[in-house]
TrEMBL record:
This is Pentatricopeptide repeat-containing protein. The lineage of its organism: Eukaryota, Viridiplantae, Streptophyta, Embryophyta, Tracheophyta. InterPro entries: E_motif, PPR_At4g14850-like_plant, PPR_rpt, TPR-like_helical_dom_sf. One of its GO terms (biological process) is RNA modification. Belongs to the PPR family. PCMP-E subfamily. GO terms for molecular function: RNA binding. It comes from Miscanthus lutarioriparius. PPR repeats lie at residues 7-41, 108-142, 213-243, 244-278, 347-381.
Length: 527
């Protein structure tokens, strides 16, 4: 059969179409095909390829394709440069994104929004504001991005001022850059009130809005679910005249987040009987629901559904599949999937899912071995990775290795230590019998110790028969929660183990007189 020769136009059409449809892997492979066939890509082909590479989310990949653009002198095209800004910002390479942005001779509103979104995503609100007010022609994306940035930074007053300014700007323009300004303002107002937790005002704004626009319905739906009003949200969902992918995904995700995985799956299967196609968010929520309460057969069915449909297997979905297989009792399937796909991962989330699954199911040594494998890749571990790794060290009693990982978080990776990391380390030291060192670590923490940390100290004190430290831990727990009966029970046991029967009687009398709660399953307390 004769070989079909494609030209630059053919490749441009296919690469761009695949990238826009979300098939990043196929678009990247096709772009590389242009190079192997000595076809010279044009600026449109390269822009489509950058879109696809951006979905892979690897900084090293961005640098490679940027170099190719420089080599072919295509970086001067606005479409290419804008997509490079978007791609760098998407992987939080803000210095590279800003350098590309500042070097552009001509920019359009999409370029400005890409830079703005990068700063908002990185929680650099001051830089985001600086970029926003320099945008020559702001559109709906510009305003929504800024308002969301303010809200995420808990700057509600600034968000409100931005909203008022947006309404004024839209009101002075009959047709702002081609979108329906009136409908946009209505939907944004519902969205704004919902994000601020002002559910009554969000409902009032919705009642006054034009009900023919799905965006307003979706905004109120998200607001209700954010407040945990699942029944009201479902009533609104059922009343919607038209539902899009966002509507279905929001409602399904809401059920998962409120512990109603059964309803999430029921709604997901109902969605499959409609003309609306599930996207990555929908499928990730469905996998989470199955992981919580579903069966392995359901999970395998969704896996097959993803593979047999034009759906890009993103890192987020890969992490969901690994988590689902492990929680449905098949760690072997999780490992098999991970081993088959890990060379395609560009972010840490699937690695975290596999490392965590191994640790939780008793394979702590395998979990740590996998972490070592991760360190040999170009993917950087994050805060979540180290929580799992420190927990695995705790379960295996690897104190020296745990200390090394704990110290390397900030030294090698620049990761900020949280109370969860300190909690893991205190638990590790306490279980290994290093009570003095554990107590010193608690005193050096930049934040106040919580119930979990003092519970770990109390458990370790009992295991080592350290009455003095046990008394201190119980006292600190009482300060944090006066009804924390489990600490009194643990202290009573410490006294009993030490033969201090008078003290045992005093503590048990306190339990009877003050009616403390016996929180048997309280994390961090071993009775």
């Amino acid at each position: 059969m004769p070989r079909i020769h494609r030209d630059a136009v053919s490749y441009t059409t296919l690469v761009t179409a695949l990238a826009r449809a979300g098939h990043a892997g196929r678009a990247v492979a096709l772009f590389r095909g242009t190079l192997s066939e000595n076809v010279v890509p044009n600026e449109v082909t390269l822009a489509g390829a950058i879109m696809a590479f951006a979905r892979h989310g690897a900084p090293v990949t961005m640098g490679m394709i940027h170099g190719f653009a420089l080599q072919r002198a295509l970086d001067g095209f606005v479409i290419v440069a804008t997509n490079l800004v978007h791609a760098y910002a998407g992987v939080l390479e803000l210095c590279s994104a800003r350098a590309m942005f500042d070097g552009m001779t001509h920019r359009n509103t999409v370029t400005w929004n890409a830079m703005l979104n990068g700063y908002v995503k990185a929680e650099m609100i001051d830089m985001a504001v600086e970029v926003f007010w320099r945008i020559p022609e702001r559109d709906e994306v510009s305003w929504l991005t800024l308002i969301d940035g303010y809200i995420c930074a808990d700057l509600i007053s600034d968000a409100m001022k931005a909203y008022v300014q947006m309404v004024g700007e839209v009101g002075t323009n009959d047709n702002e850059n081609g979108f329906d300004a009136y409908a946009f303002v209505q939907a944004t107002l519902v969205h704004f009130y919902g994000r601020c937790g002002l559910i009554g005002l969000a409902q009032m704004a919705f009642r006054l809005s034009d009900k023919s626009h799905t965006a307003s319905w979706n905004a109120l739906l998200a607001a209700l679910l954010r407040k945990g009003l699942i029944h009201e949200a479902r009533e609104l969902f059922d009343d919607m005249p038209e539902r899009d992918t966002v509507s279905w995904s929001t409602m399904i995700s809401g059920y998962v987040q409120t512990g109603r995985s059964d309803m999430a799956l029921k709604l997901f299967y109902s969605m499959l009987n409609t003309s609306v196609e599930p996207n990555e968010v929908t499928l990730a929520s469905a996998l989470s629901a199955i992981a919580d309460s579903g069966t392995l057969d359901q999970g395998k069915w969704i896996h097959d559904h993803i593979m047999n449909r034009p759906i890009q297997l993103t890192d987020n979905l890969s992490a969901g599949l690994i988590d689902m297989y492990a929680k449905c009792g098949s760690v072997a399937d999780a490992v098999q999937f991970f081993n088959r796909a890990n060379d395609k991962f560009s972010s840490v989330s699937p690695w975290n899912a596999m490392i965590c699954s191994l640790a939780i199911h008793g394979y702590a040594h395998m979990s740590l071995d996998l972490f070592s494998q991760l360190q040999r890749t170009s993917i950087k571990p994050n805060s979540i990775t180290f929580i799992v790794v420190l927990s695995a060290c705790c379960h295996t009693g690897m104190v020296a290795k745990g200390k090394y990982y704990f110290e390397s978080m900030t030294r090698e990776y620049g990761i900020r230590l949280t109370i969860k990391h300190y909690g893991c380390m205190v638990d590790l030291l306490g279980r290994a019998g290093y009570l003095e060192e554990a107590e010193q670590l608690v005193s050096m923490m930049p934040m106040k110790a919580d119930v979990v940390i003092w519970g770990s100290i109390l458990s370790a004190a009992r295991a080592q028969g350290n009455v003095t430290l046990g008394e201190k831990a119980a006292e600190e727990l009482a300060k944090l929660d006066q009804t924390h009966g489990a600490s009194k029970v643990a202290l009573s046991n410490i006294y009993a183990d030490a033969g201090h029967w008078t003290n045992v009687s005093v503590v048990r009398k306190e339990l009877e007189d003050e009616n403390f709660e016996r929180l048997v399953g309280r994390s961090g307390i071993v009775q």
